[in-house]
Design brief:
single chain; 452 residues; alpha/beta; TIM Barrel; eight-stranded parallel beta sheet; two-stranded antiparallel ribbon; 10 strands; globular; hydrolase activity; Metal_Hydrolase; Amidohydro-rel
């Protein structure tokens, strides 16, 4: 089989393979309600439609792009730019050089590609149009499609060849009265449980902020008994709704490794923290905060291990000293019934690869990589495929909007074709092996592990 035939065969197969995406945050944009970080409205309310018209500016000023744009001098647009054509064009004129200077960044590459696929006009194409004609046309198309959001969501899932996506949400999502299978985006979107509010977000004044899970459970953390009660309540929710996976975010504020901690140590530390709340003393009591979090995380791991629950964990892409997946090794080996899914990993791709190669309960996930840089995704796939068993590689985008998702999926398919074609051409794989790997990476592994 010649080089062109190899590529054509793989490309044809990859383009037809259905997607089961293991990690997405679609709709975490301002038109669905401003977030009170870390609680995005769509993470706590099922079947949530936009609360205002969705525009190109909403897609541009997402949680991923806003830091990049503001670092280059952009400001969040005034309210009028989201409503009036003239104000919108004025804002895009200001943003044009900033977007152009960031045009190679993965998230903007994916957004450009997704806009072209879904609306027929790419971001860069629209920015280059005279008098802003294409910008207005693109903006109008986005507003129109999002006006019937769930129809649009379903249309995008079909257009991208997606059967299901996993979406991390807080406990409030499951106990909301509007939670019904098939409602809104739930035809294609399967919620999985975030542990973050249970663990407590580090906070300057509250030290550990349990507000989200306290609000959902209906009681406050006032002592260690309440903490144990909350953990039990949390897993009752997991059992009732047959939650198929957990997800942990804590790498943004603490090491991903989890130290041992006795209940007595936790009780003493929690007593100190509760007495100090409101004093603005996080730095002073950080050690106590870590002790309480370590206890909670150990209890979560014990319960997950008992239930053989998959466990997605954010690694890399935060503070380098505390996000290396290599720090998880002892935990992985202790809780063998947990399928640990290592998200992101960059710049620790090799460490993640090694863990998945040497531990049968570890999977690697391409989440967020294509949004960082398509080249980073290519590097990761080249390393994963050939070092990690084919049945333990996931693909996902970690997208914020439908447009990011569509562009990210298209680029992921394209890069996977490149990687597999090269490996077949160099006789590292035969064509049948390459086709099998593509099916596993694009959805088969996610579907199998989560019993979708």
């Amino acid at each position: 089989m010649g080089t062109s035939q190899i590529r054509e065969t793989i490309a044809s197969h990859v383009s037809k393979t259905r997607i089961y995406s293991s990690h997405e945050h679609i709709s975490s944009i301002d038109s669905f309600g401003k977030n009170s970080s870390p609680w995005f409205p769509v993470d706590i309310k099922p079947a949530l439609p936009p609360s205002s018209a969705t525009t190109l500016l909403d897609l541009l000023f997402s949680p991923y792009t806003t830091p990049q744009l503001t670092a280059m001098g952009a400001s969040y647009p005034p309210e009028g730019a989201f409503k009036e054509d003239e104000a919108f064009l004025n804002e895009m004129k200001i943003l044009r050089p900033i977007i152009k200077s960031n045009s190679g960044i993965g998230v903007l590459v994916c957004l450009d590609r997704g806009l072209k696929i879904l609306h027929g006009i790419g971001l860069n194409e629209a920015l280059s149009s005279p008098n802003g004609e294409l910008l207005l046309k693109l903006n109008a198309s986005i507003k129109d499609k999002y006006s019937d959001y769930f129809q649009w969501f379903n249309e995008v899932m079909e257009k991208t060849g997606t059967d299901s996506i996993l979406k991390p949400v807080h406990p409030e999502y499951f106990i909301d009265n509007s939670f019904k299978k098939g409602a809104g985006e739930l035809k294609y979107s399967l919620p999985i449980m975030r542990v973050d509010s249970l663990v407590g977000f580090q906070h300057d004044e509250k030290i550990l902020d349990f507000a989200g899970v306290e609000r959902a459970a209906g009681f406050e953390i006032k002592n260690s008994l309440n903490l144990d009660e909350m953990i039990s309540w949390f897993f009752e929710i997991c059992d009732k709704f047959q939650v198929c996976s957990l997800k942990q975010l804590q790498a943004y504020s603490r090491p991903i490794s989890v130290s041992d901690c006795t209940r007595e140590e936790m009780s003493k530390a929690l007593e100190v923290l509760l007495a100090a709340r409101g004093a603005g003393a996080l730095a002073k009591y950080r050690d106590e905060a870590l002790i309480v979090q370590n206890y909670i995380l150990r209890r979560i791991l014990e319960e997950a291990n008992t239930r053989s629950l998959p466990y997605q964990i954010h690694t890399g892409m935060t503070i380098l000293s505390q996000s290396n997946p290599g720090q998880l090794e002892s935990m992985i080996q202790q809780y063998r019934n947990i399928a640990f899914v290592i998200l992101h990993a960059y710049p620790f791709i090799s460490e993640a690869t090694y863990l998945a190669r040497t531990n049968p309960n570890v999977w690697v996930d391409t989440s967020w990589l294509v949004l960082q840089s398509p080249e980073i995704l290519q590097i990761a796939l080249k390393e994963y495929i050939g070092m990690v068993p084919a049945d333990r590689i996931f693909s996902s985008i970690d997208s914020i909007s439908l447009e990011e998702y569509a562009g990210g999926i298209a680029l992921t398919r394209s890069i996977l074709i490149d990687v597999l074609s090269e490996k077949v051409e160099r006789n590292f794989l035969d064509i049948e092996e390459a086709l099998y790997i593509s099916e596993r990476v694009l959805g088969g592994n996610c579907k199998q592990l989560h019993r979708l």
